[in-house]
Amino acid sequence: MDMNSMAIENNGQFSINVDRRLSPKEQWEDFLHELCHVLRHSGNQMAMPDRYVNWQEQDASAFQLYAALPLSMLKTLTLPENKNEMIAYLSEEFQVTFRLAKARIDQIERRVLQGFLDYEYQQNTQGQTSRKYDPSNWSEATCLIMERLEFLKSKGVPASGKTNRLL
To answer: What region holds the IrrE N-terminal-like domain (predicted)?
Structure first.
C-alpha cells in the first residue's frame, strides 16, 4: 500500500504492509524489519513507553542485518579485498541497499576486532595473574612476610596484629 511499512496484529492474526513507494531493495529491508516485529515482539507501540518502543526498533534493525546478510552465507562467498567493492557486491548479491550492506560489514568488523581485543586481554591478564600469585616469583622479603602472616594466622592473630580479646 502507499503507506509506511508496518506490522499489524489483530486478534492473533498478523500482517505486514510494505510501502510500495520504496525501491525493491528498500521494500525487502522493510519486510525483514517488520518480520522481526511479528516473530519477536508483541503489543501496540502507540501504547508503549518510548524506551520499550526504542528497544523494539533497535532489535528489529539488528534482526534485519542478520536476516538480510546471514554470516553463514557470507562465509561461502569470495569477497573483493576493497571494502567499497565488497559492500557493492553484497548489495547486489543479496538485493539490499549499499547502506545496509555497509552496516552489516561494519558490524562484522567490530565483532572481529572485539574478539582480537578480548583474546589479547585474556593473554595479558592470565600472564599477570600467574606471576602475581606464584610464590616462586616472589622476592625473599615477600616470602618472609607471607610466612610471618601464615604463622600469625595459625595462632589466631589477625593480620592487623591486634587480638579480638575483650579487656
So the answer is: 16-105
In angstroms and rounded to an integer, the radius of gyration of the C-alpha atoms of the chain is 29
Do residues 28 and 96 make contact, with C-beta atoms less than 8 angstroms apart?
A: yes
Q: What is the pLDDT along the chain (167 residues), one digit of tens a residue?
A: 899 999 988 888 899 999 999 999 999 999 999 999 999 998 888 888 999 999 999 999 999 999 999 999 999 999 999 999 999 999 999 999 999 999 999 999 999 889 888 888 888 887 665 555 677 777 787 777 878 778 777 877 655 555 444 33
Ranges of each domain in the chain: 1-68, 70-134
Cβ contact 64:28 at 8 Å:
no
Going 34 to 39 to 40 to 42, the CA torsion angle's sign is positive
Give the residue ranges of DSSP H helices in the chain.
Answer: 24-40, 50-68, 71-74, 83-93, 98-133, 140-154
Q: For 65-81, give one letter per residue: b (16+ CB within 10 A) or e.
A: bebbbeeeebeeeeeee
Q: Grid coordinates in use for 9?
A: 496484529
